[in-house]
Amino acid sequence: MDYRYGKVMPLEEAVTGYVEFLKQEGVGVETEVIPVSKAYRRITAEASYALIPSPHYNCSAMDGIAIHSRETFGATSTTPVYLQKGSFEIVDTGDPIPDGYDAVVMIEDVVWQEDGSVRLDSSSAPWAHVRQVGEDICQGDMIIPSYSRISASHLGSLIAGGIREIKVLKKVKAVILPTGDEIVSADKLPAKGEITEFNSVIFSAMLSDFDCEVDVEPILKDNLQNLTDKVKELAAKYDLVIVNAGSSAGRDDYSSRAVETSGKLFAHGIAIRPGKPAIMGVVDKAAVMGLPGYPVSAAVVMENCVFPVVEYLQHSFAARPPKIEAVLGRRIVSELKYQEYVRVKLGRIGGKFIAIPLPRGAGLISSLSHADGMLTLPLANEGMEAGDVVEIDLYKPLHQLENTLVINGSHDPIIDVIGDFLRKKDYQAFISSSHTGSMGGITAIMKGECMIAPIHLLDGATGVYNVAAVNKYLSDCDVTLVKGVKRQQGLFIPKGNPKNLKDINDLTREDITFVNRQKGAGTRVLLDYLMEKNGITSEQICGYDNEMYTHTAVATQVACGNADCGLGVYSAAKLYDLDFIPLFSEEYDLVVRNDCMDNPLVKEFLEILHSDEFKEFVTEMGGYTF
Amino acid sequence: MDYRYGKVMPLEEAVTGYVEFLKQEGVGVETEVIPVSKAYRRITAEASYALIPSPHYNCSAMDGIAIHSRETFGATSTTPVYLQKGSFEIVDTGDPIPDGYDAVVMIEDVVWQEDGSVRLDSSSAPWAHVRQVGEDICQGDMIIPSYSRISASHLGSLIAGGIREIKVLKKVKAVILPTGDEIVSADKLPAKGEITEFNSVIFSAMLSDFDCEVDVEPILKDNLQNLTDKVKELAAKYDLVIVNAGSSAGRDDYSSRAVETSGKLFAHGIAIRPGKPAIMGVVDKAAVMGLPGYPVSAAVVMENCVFPVVEYLQHSFAARPPKIEAVLGRRIVSELKYQEYVRVKLGRIGGKFIAIPLPRGAGLISSLSHADGMLTLPLANEGMEAGDVVEIDLYKPLHQLENTLVINGSHDPIIDVIGDFLRKKDYQAFISSSHTGSMGGITAIMKGECMIAPIHLLDGATGVYNVAAVNKYLSDCDVTLVKGVKRQQGLFIPKGNPKNLKDINDLTREDITFVNRQKGAGTRVLLDYLMEKNGITSEQICGYDNEMYTHTAVATQVACGNADCGLGVYSAAKLYDLDFIPLFSEEYDLVVRNDCMDNPLVKEFLEILHSDEFKEFVTEMGGYTF
Lengths: 626, 626
What we know:
The structure is a homodimer. The first copy, chain A, is an alpha/beta fold.
């Protein structure tokens, strides 16, 4: 059976329409009465009115004596009034005003007489220096209206107003149903062809931020009948049912059909990317939504389709991530017929934010955890140019981004190590590093998109590292070249060297597949230098165009047999227990913008780099010298 | 025994010094290993490195056929390559690449032959259209560094990286110890002289936002020995002990002495207002902090002293409230020697935010729940002028403030009712009303500080309501006067009219105490009009200067016996079951800025005002006609 999307709807239309649809279908949560002390962050189901005033008795606002104001009328320094002992009472701040009295005279205005009476040189108005009943809250005052999220201080006002129980909306009961033949639970490590199910953990966390009660069902195999039955069963018990995945329109994508058969399908296919295969429907009195399997797509649908539904169910708007303006660091292309979501890394340099788009693969969960913010490209937008000022929804607190050291350039595991040292040293400091290769780092320094750029660029002519590159490319920039580490570059080969490689010339062998680094990477530059020296052309090397972005990625390809050989640093070879043929001892240095030299984060970074503790640690990693 | 503050420290010095002190004293939390699936929002105790790559096998990025790239080398449309049946395999997107193959040809590039072989017109590079092992995450990659709050997507990356358990910091264990002879638990309503304990509920909620585990102790009476013993006992079990109150320097304030006797007192008295009587100390290995009893003071100390301590304990910075710029609506005076905190209501009108300072009484819990944001006046600042541009820390989400209808002027309970109707009608809409009286509302309209101003201003000459005032004061403003409700103004008197009042002239009687409304209130204007008509002067009325800001506040004073009589609307008298002597039927109308007429919130407000549902409701309240 061939199955297709329905009309692919624009996001706005889909969400507002779906919420309207949910209303018509009577989808909603019930109410319950709970103790105020347990009501934090809950949402009121009706307005609450104070039952008692606060303060509920007149109390003194000063240390002094309680008096009857009428007895002081007309008092002046020339015509003072005397109050006999017994016609006044001493009170401290906060004390109740004794019956019969209606004002307080500050202790410093009381002139004590021998006989225990007092002289007053000025008259008191009724309730002078008294906190009168209801000064804070009056009986009958509305303390909180309907459908409002109860704050910490609301709790105080409610209790002060004599309210002990409050009617709130029940928490939204949500359930996540993972489906798919290839999906396995995280209990065990996945075998080849198996994909570990982790979306439900991500969704649960996201929904917990909305104070939903979330359950997760066992994984269901792809089967239309079973899925339909299960959806019916869950819809009877929950307010929100999230089916993941099978929301697409392929052979084994049953979600939309299951919704159609068991209830009403409102939308299948939304004009967003990633996330197009979203499903919106109603079964029984539950909102049933289908999410794509790729985590990046699913997250977009969660944020843009599921959250609004939760908000509808809670009659309450949740906080939106704050927005900032940033300068786009790289060009982005977008398809006209989709609203596109691009995750970005943000760096704050010289007062302005730079947004660097992250890889957009829908399967890259790492792109989610690396993201500092989200850039949205509306429908009918062809893309953005580098340098454009864009609006970004923040995923991380602003103050964190303002305390983030921005590094861009050549990858080495020690950068992450320094980042970790930094966290341990100063919990207010963060690090953000992008692996764009040495040349990428040089460009970022030039464009003011990073504070520090790690580079290792060999000057073929002189055989000297980095100095030439800095002079050549950064002559107009005010930078300092800080000495970093010496590290061993060499060939990664499987343990025992089965194919008996000796040196760079073996890369041309018919039976050897190589794995390379991306253009602009210092390691790639080194390879090309060595190839030239040995008169090797790229056509002679099988796999020359298979590019990886990190040393560990290269080691991974060799370790898993995708390649017979790759070029990289010793520490990565050691990490993967690979054999290593040393080819070159190189210098991995750091270009620092001088306008960042006084930045405390940069200072801390350099302190760590030069600390004995750090040197010990990386020496342990292997292949590094100082 | 007379006890004094120590040296009163500036906030910055106190907090940084105290955190340093906690470090020296070895105050900190332990670590624990927990399942990743339970680790959301927890803080890592060490860096986590991927144990397996993701994807952990090569899988197809396309629907097509898996082939061996070498067999396609040199293929062109003129020199095609033929692959015999069995030398390739059909794969769907996501399928593992069968052993022996290293590339995928997209199905649309495959030319099928009669005999089941395929023709390829172009060559494939190794790993073309293949998601290679580790494309997302490589074994050994650092997924999250030390002391980082685990996000939803981190959970995904950790699981994808084969990590099932993670070492995190234990949650901060905090305990709140309420103390005071006058303090009673919220289980029962308080008697005269008793104060209901609600600070612990507020503190617990605030600390729960930091993911602390919070316990609350039973209320402890004021007794130095018992307090000292209890603090010792709690310090042994908790990371953070909060003593509330008794932190001041009065006769019964034992907190600082208890800390001194049982451990080390670091600071007593901080140069902030409110909140000066804060205490910072260490007992055993716990941070022990004393907070003042007044809720507003205590909240300031929580935010500015306790939160930083929790952050130190968690090695982690929490999100700060976002800041916005606002125009100060009223003058604020500040004392040079304190850093002062002033809560404000915010209104967004015509693109800019207006900040209206709330009453600053330390006991006004309502000022906490009404606050939209906080204005901080630094040390050595004398205050701010109306019109100054100030920076505000937001307490409410920005989008909420942008969807808030701003009302400023005369108080009537029906405004809250409309606000509640608005919440029920549109959960994205909010209302904010300030009770500044009719004249205050007129001024706010003039200064563009509100969208709608409810007024009821009688023109003595014509006896006509509101029109004259609008013409007189708002001639230069583009506004519309919208008809509101007719309501009964009259005298509030205790049930049964014990003192037998008849009319306004009785207010001059010796035995009558009156309670008035604030200057600028329409009801005050009405009173003055009636007094003038009857030749009564303010001196003749006892209690004329006792001012309340709302009708319910006036009713409260009469109901509790603070006054024999007050002037206000019937609905308030009815609410308090008071007798009511009608004096005047007045018109309570709404001045609307025309530049706000298209504002959807204003439209919704007016729709509600004119709806039958609303009219029924307020008719039920009594004293209103349309």
